[in-house]
Amino acid sequence: MASSSKRVSTLRSALHASADGRRFSLHPEDEHSSSAHQNLRSDPAHRVHAGLDTSRVSTGVIWVTEQAAKHGYADEPQKWANLGQGAPEVGDDIEGCFPRPTSIPVTLQGQEYGPVVGIKPLRAAVAKLYNEHYRQGKESQYTWENVCIVPGGRAGLIRIAAVLGNAYLGFFIPDYTAYSEMLSLFRNFVAIPTPLSSADGYHIHADKVADELARGTTVILTSNPRNPTGHALDPDELSLIQDICRDRATLIFDEFYAGYNYNSGCDGSTISAASNVIDVDKDDVILVDGLTKRFRLPGWRVAWIVGPKPFIQALGSSGSYLDGGTNVPFQEAAVEMLDPPKVREEMKALQRHFKMKRDYVLKRLREIGFNQGDQEIPDSTFYIWLDLTTLDPPLPKDSAIDLSNGLSFLDALLKERTIVVPGIFFDLNPSKRRDLFDSPCHHFVRISYGPKMSVLKMGLDGIERAVKRARGETVQDDRATQEESEARSPQSPIQSEKGAGHGEHSH
C-alpha cells in the first residue's frame, strides 16, 4: 500500500490544475488559455444544426483554408504559400516529364454514359502497367477484369467500404485525414484505429499487423507510402505483412504516392503491393491509385482500383448507386499515358524533381532551427511531418508567440501568409473525442513540398519570420516590398508567379 500511495502522490504532483481548479491534466497548457484552440472549438462546424451532422464538415485541409480565408487568402491566393494542400504542382515545368494535354477530344462514345467500372481500353492499360512494372515472370497476371476505374481516390475508397461485409477494419494513425470520416459513413463494419509509435517514425511493423489479426481484424486499410509521415514500408516487411495476412484478412493499400520513391536513386522504380501477390484472383489485396499524384493531374479525377475479379464486380455494382462512374473523355485521354516505358521515364523525372524540393525544404528547416527528432528523412511522398518540439534552441519562456503545437503554429503562420496542416487532423477527430493536448499528433504539422519552388521559398520565409518573431528578433518583412514591386510590374501576379516558377526549375 505504501508503494501505491507513493506512486499516486508522484502522479498527483505532476498534474496541472485549470484556472478554475476543477480540471486536472498532465499538460501544463490549457486549451482555454489558447485562442488558436478556442477558435477550433467555437467554429460553426462544431455546433449543432437541425438536419446537419456537423461532425463531418471540418477535415484538416478545409479547416486551414477557412482560417486562411479570414486573413485574405481567398482574395489574393497568389500572395500566399499554401503548404497545406496535398497536391503536386501541375503543368509542364518539370524537365523530362511528358507534356500534359491542354485540350481533350470528345468522341461520340465520350458523349454517352460510360461503364460504371470504366472503359475497357483504360482498364487493360492499367493491368498491363501493373504486370510489366510489378509482375514480370509471375504466372498469375492481371487482366482488364481486375481493374475498376473510379472518379478519384475518395470515390474508390467509398466504393470499397460499401462492399465490405461485417468485419473489424483496422487502420493506423497518423494517416490520411479523410479515412475516419469516410469509414464512419458505413455501419456494416467496425473501424478500429491503431496508434503507431513516434519513437520509430510511425512505421507499420509486421508484428503490429499480427496483433491486429489476433484480435479479430479481417480488413486492414493503410496508405503506402504513408501520408503524412512520408515513409514507405520496407519491401521485405511489406512482403511479410502480405504473407501473414494471406487467407486471413483483406489488405487495402492506398498507393497514391507510389511514384514518389527516393530510395532507389531516382531510377523510376515505384512501390506496390502488387509485387507480392501470388494469385491476382485469390489474394485479398486491393490497390488504389490514379492520375492524381504521380501523374500530377488532380483535376482529372481519374483513379483505379486493382484487385480480385469478385471485388471488382462488386465495386461496379456499388458505383452504380454511389457515383455513377468516371468522365469518359478523360478516361480515353489517359490510355496513352500509361504505356509502361513512358511511365518509367515520367517517374524518373518526377523523383529527381521532388527529391530536390524535399532536400531544399529540409535544409531550410534545419537552418531555421528544426531538427528531425525521431522522424527520419522522408523517403517517399511530398510531405514533411515536422516535430515542433525539435526547435533548437527552444523559444524563450516569456515568448508572446506559441509555436509548440500545430494549431498555434498555424495561427502564427497565417499572419505570414503561409498555410500548413496541424497534426491533430491526422488523428481521430480529437476536437470531439479528447483534450487536444492529449493527441500524440498535437505537436506536429504536415508541410507539403508539392507546390512549385517559388511557393516553397515563400512558405519557408514565412516560417522563418514566425520563429524570429517568437524569439523577439527584429524581422525584415519583405511582403510590402514585394507588393510594391508587383504593383509597378506590367505582368499580372499569376504571370509573375509562372515566371518565378520557370526560373527555379531551370536549375
UniProtKB/TrEMBL annotation:
GO molecular function, one term: pyridoxal phosphate binding
Gene3D superfamilies in alphabetical order: Type I PLP-dependent aspartate aminotransferase-like (Major domain)
Protein keywords: Aminotransferase, Pyridoxal phosphate, Transferase
Domain of life assignment: Eukaryota
Record keyword Nucleotide-binding present: no
CDD domains referenced in this protein's UniProt entry, alphabetically: AAT_like (cd00609)
Single Gene Ontology BP annotation: amino acid metabolic process
InterPro entries xrefs: Aminotransferase_I/II_large, AspAT/PAT-like, PyrdxlP-dep_Trfase, PyrdxlP-dep_Trfase_major
Compositional bias segments (type: Basic and acidic residues): 19-34, 469-487
Region (Disordered): 19-44, 469-507
Cofactor section: pyridoxal 5'-phosphate
Domain annotation Aminotransferase class I/classII large: ranges: 111-451
Similarity annotation: Belongs to the class-I pyridoxal-phosphate-dependent aminotransferase family.
Protein name: Aminotransferase class I/classII large domain-containing protein
